[in-house]
Write a structure and sequence with these properties.
CATH topology of the largest domain: Transcription Regulator spoIIAA
Protein name: STAS/SEC14 domain-containing protein
Oligomer: single chain
CATH superfamily of the largest domain: STAS domain
CATH architecture of the largest domain: 2-Layer Sandwich
Strand order of the largest sheet: 1-2-3-4-5-6
């Protein structure tokens, strides 16, 4: 029982070191097939470090590298792989600097996964922060277009002033070549539209 308890502590520490994870198979391959885990035979951290670096190297050259979703107090940004789309849901009013950082992370996800569609839920934003409409219009739209996005579905609030704020940011998007932009009242309809594209 004592050995088992020590093993559990060590194994938990190993798979969570540096916020990274390895499988049980990799753990035993690195430890050795017949390794016993007790006070006199602890898993060496230098072996763990080498294993992590090797795994990073394999991921880099095998295309398996994964980028994390972005979830914080302002937004939930996820990749919907089956839809080949970026899914963004704003949770509250977002100050300009935070807003720009979120959109810059969106660029990274779009580039990394080569996404062609976006569904962006803005219903919980009462209005865009000062400067945000101009940024969306002058920077965000051209950037995602250059990165390969071709279809964007916005889910907009019903409140009048919120719609005015959104329209300022989204006006004249029909002039952007090879990009279709539509506005919806709910995510189900928006996603349904993207599925047909």
């Amino acid at each position: 029982m004592k050995k088992l308890a020590i093993f559990r502590i060590i194994f938990h520490d190993v798979i969570h070191q540096n916020g990274e994870h390895i499988t049980a198979k990799e753990f035993f391959m690195c430890c050795g097939k017949h390794t016993t885990v007790d006070e006199n035979s602890l898993f060496r951290r230098d072996q763990m470090y080498r294993l992590m670096r090797e795994k990073e190297f394999r991921a880099t050259f095998s295309g398996e590298e994964k980028m994390d979703d972005l979830i914080n107090n302002f937004v939930e940004v996820r990749v919907e792989k089956q839809l080949n789309a970026l899914s963004v849901r704003f949770l509250r009013f977002t100050p300009y600097q935070d807003f720009v950082k979120i959109l810059e992370y969106e660029y990274k996800l779009i580039r990394h996964y080569q996404l062609k569609k976006c569904v962006i839920d803005l219903r919980l934003i009462p209005v865009y922060a000062p400067g945000a409409p101009e940024y969306v219009k002058d920077v965000w739209f051209p950037t995602v277009r250059t990165l390969g996005v071709r279809h964007i579905a916005f889910v907009v609030p019903e409140a009048f002033w919120a719609q005015v704020s959104m329209e300022r940011a989204h006006e004249n998007t029909e002039s952007i070549d090879s990009m279709a932009v539509e506005h919806f009242k709910d995510t189900e309809t928006a996603i349904g539209w993207l599925k047909t594209r």
